[in-house]
Amino acid sequence: MFQTEFEFTLPCGYLDEDGTLHKEGVMRRATAADEIHPLKDPRVLKNEAYVLIILLSRVVTRLGGVASINPKVIEGLFATDLAFLQRLYNQINDIEDDAAPCPHCGRSGLAEGGQRLGEHVATPSLN
After folding, report:
1. Phi/psi-derived region of residue 109, left when phi > 0, alpha when psi is between -120 and 50, beta in every other case
2. 23-47 confidence digits (pLDDT tens)
3. Which pLDDT tens digit goes with each residue over 3-26?
4. 108 and 101 in contact (C-beta within 8 Å)?
5. How far apart are the two ends of the chain, measured CA to CA in Å?
6. Residue 14: closest CA among 56, 55, 42, 47
7. Can you tell me the distance from the alpha carbon of 66 to that of 96, in angstroms, rounded to the nearest whole number?
8. Which residue spans within the chain are E strands per DSSP?
9. 51 phi and psi, to 5 degrees?
10. What are the pLDDT digits (tens) for 84-118?
């Protein structure tokens, strides 16, 4: 079965305005529109690095109890979590080389059972 959504656990977590930490989330595979539409955004035209913020705000569909995932939420992530989500995005959308280690288990290439990277969920080790 073709998988379109991938659960994840952030290494640090998103700390909202009320002080609640949100770590569990879901990211979906990107569509062509997800990659094209951010390029027209004025924030991206001013700063190309902002494309990652907009792109992740489109494909992260759930993050703990956060009501709406938007660029402000993604901007509020710790750098560790932003890098984690970028690696996950690249893996589930087959952008990185298959030899890159999975952010969940650290294995390269295919996971146990022949799953592609990102198709299984495990809590990343903080050691």
Report:
1. left
2. 999 999 999 999 999 999 999 999 9
3. 999 999 999 999 999 999 999 999
4. yes
5. 33
6. 56
7. 29
8. 5-15, 21-28, 60-63
9. -60, -35
10. 999 999 999 987 555 455 555 555 444 344 434 33
